[in-house]
Amino acid sequence: MPSLLTASAAALSLAVLAGCGSTNSDSAGQSPEPTERQTAETAGPAERIALTYDGGVMVLDAESHKVLGTFEAEGFTRLNAAGDNRHLFLTEGDAFRLLDMGTWSEPHGDHSHSYTTDPLLTDQRIEGSHPGHLVNHDGTSVAFFDGTGEIHSFDPAELSADAPIKTEKAQAKEAHHGVAVVRADGSMIHTVGDEDTRSGVVIRDAEGTDVAENSDCPGVHGEAAVKDGVITVGCENGLLIIKGDEITKVDSPDEHGRIGNQRGHEDSPVVLGDYKTDPEAEVERPTRVTLTDTTSGKLTLVDLPAAYSFRSLGRGAEGEALVHGTDGTLRVIDPESGTIGTEIPVTGEWEEPEDWQQPQPTVHVSGDHVYVTEPAAKKLHLVDLAAGKVTASIDLPEVPGEIAAASGEVSVGADAHGHDGDHGHDHDHGDGHDHDHGHDHDHDHEHDGHNH
């Protein structure tokens, strides 16, 4: 990843748009209108980090660690990658609300130009009953609403703080806590079931016709993408591997072996998953993870010296499997052999809370950057996997909940264009490493009448 420089350190001021006053957001959540924000050019992509807390969301500069803006938000909020390296979605009430992180890059021939502006929690929303998973694959982002089974797909390249979000709507057969993926050929994979029983997945072609279905996946939950566009979803007794229009079941070695949360990597055929074996446990604290080779279908269990939670999993830039244990150690696992390699002390000891919505250490990977939150200490740690150590520990003004990042890099598939002098628009596209595909919305507990 290119060196990250802040706008103030790197920048050439490009344009102050009409009516521009103070552009800094304040602690009460006040912020300028989209058209009032100043744009500056930076020396390279400027990664920014979003962290939720009780009552709002804050945006930090990844290089200076400065809080660039704080915004009020109601209720329990979640963060979702929008799919364009610039925007995130905040799950707020019955909507996904667009959060402009204010960092992006545009291709220009054999190079690119990078820009920043003030972050902004916009008024643009995708509305529906009980928003659940929002995922991005192959240049299309898809929001699933658990309360109705409504599926909204959209092009993240068209997101803007100034314009309503245009989506194409589809409908699952029944309402349930589900997820949907749109692939490059226009086909869609989505889960099936009702609000009481989730049973598997269906594949629809670009015209909406069902072409394949598998119902041998009780409690279907979560998704991940691995090499060659292969998709996996978790089951209470294994997982499903979806290649093209073929769906293959991989059984767990235990009668109940739930793999509800997975992390994939675009250059690896192996998916990392959690593993729970006690269907009666209120809070199960597992000490094994799964590594499933989607080429051979072989599932390997890896024993760990400490427990972990659903927020503990990640994939490094080279596809390494990452697990942050309750002993405070981040373990780097070879996805092919299952061998535990580097062990990096990161946080103090911790225990998964009984209420999954309560803050707990969370791993988030963005390109070469590995972040781990430590709510008990109000800190955010940056881990260097190659060096095997924590390289920065950031003191936070609030107890962190969820975390996501916007890299500000040129999105995959962005078209090169000539300089036209207008860089004040919202025009970057393709949130990326959430090629740590597989999202932290994969936990199955009730809240406000629906599951996560």
Automatic annotation (TrEMBL):
Residues 252-268, 416-452 have a biased composition (Basic and acidic residues). Residues 1-18 form the signal peptide. Gene3D superfamilies: YVTN repeat-like/Quinoprotein amine dehydrogenase. Residues 22-46, 252-273, 413-452 are annotated as: Disordered. InterPro entries: AztD-like (IPR047697), Quino_amine_DH_bsu (IPR011044), WD40/YVTN_repeat-like_dom_sf (IPR015943). Residues 22-33 have a biased composition (Polar residues). It comes from the Bacteria. Keywords: Signal. This is Secreted protein. It comes from Brevibacterium gallinarum.
